[in-house]
Write a structure and sequence with these properties.
By secondary structure, this protein is mainly alpha-helical. It has one domain (17-150). Helices cover 58% and strands 0% of the residues. It has helices spanning 17-24, 31-37, 44-51, 55-67, 77-91, 97-108, 115-122, 126-135, 140-150, 164-171. Helix 4 packs antiparallel against helix 7, helix 5 (77-91) packs antiparallel against helix 6 and helix 7 (115-122) packs antiparallel against helix 8.
């Protein structure tokens, strides 16, 4: 669970203009409203970053998105899978950054058939993975649900629903 950054409205630099306008047009919206309603998967990494996700959490979610593209890389699937598994191991503290770079370079050294899928797998960030997964033809809804599944923000407890009897007791003077 990711604890929400209370200053989440201070969105990171380099924000897509359309996302910035969308957030600004909804001043009453909570972070959770925007997170749940965003249908553009390339916007979710910016919101997650502003919301307080760590680099490792973002990389781990990026790996999950990149896995959606693995089937599009038949010529270098082993190198691509190794790069993803090494990055995931780094997120868990089981690999070094040097090992991640070596695996990424090995994947880049192979010829590839689908550029978009290749960049989604080897782009190194969730920003690249979401963008290139969509470019490779992966459905936006699937990309969004994958990101949301791997970046779960702690939500405030919902108020308990009162029974009719409890409401009558509270409202009755």
């Amino acid at each position: 669970m990711i604890q929400l950054n209370p200053n989440w409205r201070r969105l990171p630099r380099g924000l897509p203009q359309a996302l910035s306008q969308w957030v600004d047009s909804r001043p009453e919206a909570t972070f959770y409203d925007l997170w749940d309603e965003t249908i553009n998967p390339t916007w979710l990494p910016y919101l997650a970053d502003a919301g307080g996700a760590t680099k490792k959490q973002l990389v781990f979610a990026g790996c999950a998105v990149a896995r959606l593209c693995l089937h599009l890389l038949p010529d270098c699937i082993l190198q691509a899978r190794n790069a993803l598994e090494t990055a995931e191991a780094w997120c868990k503290g089981e690999a070094t950054e040097e090992q991640v770079k070596e695996a990424k370079n090995a994947a880049y050294s192979r010829p590839y058939c689908t550029m978009s899928a290749h960049y989604a797998v080897n782009g190194g960030t969730i920003y690249a993975a979401t963008y290139w997964a969509v470019e490779a033809g992966i459905e936006s809804q699937l990309v969004c649900s994958t990101v949301r599944k791997h970046l779960v923000f702690e939500r405030p407890p919902r108020p308990k629903k009162l029974t009719i009897w409890q409401r009558l007791v509270i409202e009755d003077p």
